[in-house]
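Troubleshooting entry. The earlier prediction with adenosine-5'-triphosphate gave an output that would not parse, so I re-checked the input for stray whitespace and re-submitted. Clean input:
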Amino acid sequence: MSDGRIVVSGLTKQYKNVRAVDDLSFTVEPGRVTGFLGPNGAGKTTTLRMVLNLVTPTAGTATIGGQRYADLPDPLRTVGAILEASAAHKGRTGRNHLRVICAAAGLPDQRADEVLELVGLTPAAKRKFKGFSLGMRQRLGIAAAMLGDPKVLILDEPANGLDPEGIRWMRGFLRNLASEGRTVLVSSHLLSEMELLADDVVIIAAGRLVRQGPVAEVVGSMSTNARVRVRTPQAELLTKELTQAGATVATGTDGALLVTGVEAPAIGAAALRVSAELHELVTERPDLEHVFLELTQGKATIR
Ligand SMILES: Nc1ncnc2c1ncn2[C@@H]1O[C@H](COP(=O)(O)OP(=O)(O)OP(=O)(O)O)[C@@H](O)[C@H]1O
């Protein structure tokens, strides 16, 4: 096993009526947290399942450190994964849940306590799973994934339902794992979550790749279309002046002008030139989640 890089190449999964994953290719680098992002039903879980050899691809390959999961000599110590955070016996304590996994994987019992410590669950070690909050369940899932001290971590929606404090903890935890040189792949359907957690992002919709790159770059490319909201009694006059300056002007339902293509200072200057009185001049950055939905929705058919 070399570096823990995940390479997905031409991966496809055709269910009876649904092409859940469609010729998907991307790379996940070690030493970074990569967000795997897509709306519900985009094919994230199916992709992760194929990477982990739980679903057989219709076409294409997925490798981890150059090998398919099925060919890894010691998969549990190479890859840790959670596909469902809340899967544990209700009456069992957190520690016992982990010990059962240790026993099955041939790991020493003490490893259970080590990973509980790692995820900050030591105080709750003796509590029964049924009393765990969602955040604690997520942490326990991560603890289980860490049992084999894996080089690669694959987490399906680990931040789902976490409060801001939980997300902050998750960020620190995942960053730390990446800084140790591990490969960390986390899925989510929320861009805002990935902005907080990930270095890189792979966006899919309807089983296909939409964007891939550093999260700041991808988000930057999505938020360029700022719009300025302008209210003036001389709407017609200002519209003419702005259009001549290369702007696109639409009128909102409330009569305000919605201007794209020029920034607020240029609009102020245009208003001054034609002596238009300004009652409102507000730059509206598009809500990223909204842009993300637009970016992905166009691709989604009924699935
Ligand atoms: N075993 C299966 N048989 C038939 N269709 C399936 C099966 N598993 C998934 N699908 C379909 O494949 C598509 C992709 O599902 P998948 O669970 O991979 O998406 P996802 O991005 O993980 O979504 P979510 O965030 O809702 O879990 C969906 O349309 C789903 O209904």
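This one parsed fine. Residues 227-285 form a domain with the Alpha-Beta Plaits fold (CATH 3.30.70).
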